[in-house]
């Protein structure tokens, strides 16, 4: 080979390498989600989903909380692949029937309605996983949180097992260390964990999710000493001990249960976090510092929450020719 050709070849290789580095830096090489993904293939998709979320919200504002949680519970189990929407079959107990999800998860009917309209308009185009992501964003907006563009292009998975929900979803008795570990296992930081926990500023909880803190904390202490006594007394009135309280629900943020604000963080500072997993956030300096920041600066939290929802929405996604576009979100094709 002549020195000239070798030189040319080298510089071509260098250019190619440089291009590769640039491309991967800008994310072109990964099968990534895109904003405006349905702009050509189903231009009305986001509008239709928003319309369904809005209608549901006006019939019962609890839907907003339900839909935000649905997206979270989808993403933490097998990635955001709509596995949470698959119905159980005689041979398989699906995620939605794990104790962490049944009977508390809600909003499935909103997704079904949106999917039915989308299948009518653009059959086989809009994934159930993307509907969940859009509906969660719309729910944040409906509760007066900050809106954000949702990168889309997720594809739907075909496996859903109750045991995986049990293994992957954080339990309400988790401490900072466990929460950090679970979120870390999904590629999310401790700060994102604290930010996303702020979703507990809307919605409700069943008494069974926290009654241990009131009646059976541990072998030596009946009541969790980190609950404000007045709040504990209030919760005890709402949630009588024993089976009687099993179906009762209480708002997680009694101050503004339908508003995505930062009352959640102020509640924790006042020892009025509902779950151990909420109150624990001020037990460690690094997370307590963040709770203080967000309690004081709702705009800061609003922006960070939007970013963290986008990050959560990328966990373990299927893209390109992986997975499928389910025709009915409850069953695999
Ligand atoms: C940090 C760990 C978390 C734990 C341990 C946890 C646990 C729980 C539990 C036990 C409930 C109550 C279910 C019931 O009894 O009805 C709940 C409700 C809720 N969670 Fe979480 N969660 C966590 C993080 C998140 C995240 C990251 C989000 C969303 C970004 C979220 C959104 C919600 C919402 C909106 C509700 C209310 C649901 C409704 O009203 O239907 N949670 N959570
Ligand atoms: C029970 O909880 C109390 C208060 O947090 C704590 O001081 C005590 O060590 C715990 N006891 C056991 C057996 O874990």
Structure description:
The chain has 333 residues and is an all-alpha fold. The chain folds into 2 domains: 45-168, Orthogonal Bundle (Peroxidase, domain 1); 176-312, Peroxidase, domain 2. Helix content is 47%, strand content 2%. The chain has 14 helices and 2 strands. Strands 1-2 form a two-stranded antiparallel ribbon. α2 runs antiparallel to α4, α2 packs across α5 (128-142) and α3 (62-75) packs across α5 (128-142). It is globular. The mean pLDDT is 93. Protoporphyrin IX containing FE binds next to α3, α8 and β1. 2-acetamido-2-deoxy-beta-D-glucopyranose binds next to loops.
Q: Could you name the key traits of this structure?
A:
mainly alpha; Peroxidase, domain 2; 2 domains; two-stranded antiparallel ribbon; 14 helices; 2 strands; 47% helix; binds protoporphyrin IX containing FE; binds 2-acetamido-2-deoxy-beta-D-glucopyranose
Largest sheet: 2 strands, antiparallel
CATH fold name of the largest domain: Peroxidase, domain 2
Sum up the overall morphology in one term.
globular
Bound chemical compounds: protoporphyrin IX containing FE, 2-acetamido-2-deoxy-beta-D-glucopyranose
Unreliable runs: none
Mean pLDDT: 93
User: CATH H-level name of the largest domain... which superfamily?
Assistant: Peroxidase, domain 2
Element-level helix/strand string = HHHHHHHHEHHEHHHH
Number of helices: 14
**Per CATH, which architecture of the largest domain?**
Orthogonal Bundle
In angstroms, what is the radius of gyration? Answer: 22 Å
Strand content: under 5%
* Tally of individual domains: 2
Which percent range fits the helix content?
40-55%
Distance between the termini: 56 Å
Quantity of strands, as a count: 2
> Structural class, from secondary structure content?
mainly alpha
Strand order of the largest sheet: 1-2
């Amino acid at each position: 080979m002549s020195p000239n050709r070798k030189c040319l070849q080298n510089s071509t290789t260098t250019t190619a390498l440089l291009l590769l580095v640039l491309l991967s830096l800008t994310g072109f090489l990964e099968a990534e989600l895109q904003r405006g993904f349905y702009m050509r293939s189903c231009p009305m998709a986001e509008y239709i989903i928003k319309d369904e979320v809005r209608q549901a919200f006006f019939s019962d504002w609890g839907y907003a909380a339900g839909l935000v949680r649905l997206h979270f519970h989808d993403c933490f189990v097998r990635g955001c692949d709509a596995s949470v929407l698959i119905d159980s079959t005689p041979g398989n107990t699906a995620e939605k029937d794990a104790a962490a999800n049944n009977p508390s998860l809600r909003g499935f009917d909103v997704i079904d309605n949106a999917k039915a309209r989308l299948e009518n308009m653009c059959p086989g185009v809009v994934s159930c996983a993307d509907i969940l992501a859009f509906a969660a964003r719309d729910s944040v907006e409906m509760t007066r949180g900050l809106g954000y563009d949702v990168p889309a292009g997720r594809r739907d998975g075909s496996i859903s097992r109750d045991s995986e929900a049990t293994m992957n979803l954080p339990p309400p008795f988790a401490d900072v260390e466990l929460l950090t570990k679970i979120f870390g296992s999904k590629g999310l930081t401790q700060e994102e964990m604290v930010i996303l926990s702020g979703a507990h500023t809307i919605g409700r909880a069943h008494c069974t999710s926290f009654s241990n803190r009131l009646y059976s904390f541990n072998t030596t202490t009946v009541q969790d000493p980190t609950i404000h006594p007045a709040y504990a007394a209030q919760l005890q009135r709402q949630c009588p001990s024993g089976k009687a309280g099993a179906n009762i629900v209480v708002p997680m943020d009694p101050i503004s249960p339908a508003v995505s604000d930062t009352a959640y963080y102020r509640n924790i500072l006042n020892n009025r976090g509902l779950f151990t997993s909420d109150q624990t956030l001020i037990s460690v300096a690094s997370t307590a510092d963040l709770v203080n920041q967000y309690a004081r600066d709702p705009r800061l939290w609003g922006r960070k929450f939007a970013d963290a929802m986008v990050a959560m929405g990328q966990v373990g996604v299927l893209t390109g020719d992986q997975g499928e576009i389910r025709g009915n979100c409850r069953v695999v094709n």
